[in-house]
Design a protein that fits this description.
The chain is globular, with a radius of gyration of 16 Å. It has helices spanning 3-23, 41-63, 78-96, 100-117, 120-134. The protein is built from five helices and no strands. The longest helix has 23 residues, at 41-63. The protein has one domain (3-134): Up-down Bundle (Four Helix Bundle (Hemerythrin (Met), subunit A)), CATH 1.20.120. By secondary structure, the chain is an all-alpha fold.
């Protein structure tokens, strides 16, 4: 198995396992604090959903040769981009309400299918286009908003 296929399989496996784990979370636990300071479990899940959506949009656009920033994205200032993503993810969490788990499963299933359809060159090209647009190396996503601290 080539490295790209291994990575796609890993993403699909991890998102499936997380989806199953989240399915066992009680209604009350969705509002409990997460390991990310000032974020409840439901905000973290909304952030993951938003990340999957943004990744899919960037991949499809990158495959078409579009390396411009997506509409509505903050300037290529890492702190501003992180804050913008966090605000969008909080709004997404509000909009999805009780359907967070269903949205998580749906989006990561869609992302897994999209990743599987990209040939290794096409997937690398789409991901490179996204990273080139950011002018940054891949990084761990760390939501930023006033008062946030990360483990």
């Amino acid at each position: 198995m080539d490295d790209m296929a291994r990575r796609v399989g890993l993403i699909r496996d991890l998102s499936s396992r997380l989806g199953h784990l989240l399915a066992g979370v009680s209604r009350e636990a969705w509002t409990r604090p997460s390991a990310c300071a000032l974020w409840a479990v439901r905000e973290v899940v909304a952030h993951l959903i938003g990340g999957a959506e943004r990744q899919m949009q960037s991949m499809v656009r990158g495959r078409k040769g579009d390396a411009a920033p997506p509409p509505g994205f903050a300037p290529l200032d890492v702190a501003a981009l992180s804050a913008s993503n966090a605000q969008r993810d909080m709004a997404l969490r509000e909009r999805l309400g009780e359907t967070l788990l269903d949205a998580f499963v749906t989006q990561y299933d869609r992302l897994g299918h999209l990743l599987a359809r990209f040939d290794p060159w096409g997937l690398g090209h789409a991901l490179l286009a996204r990273q080139t647009r950011r002018h940054a190396r891949p990084r761990v996503c760390r939501p930023t908003y006033p008062g946030a601290r990360h483990p």
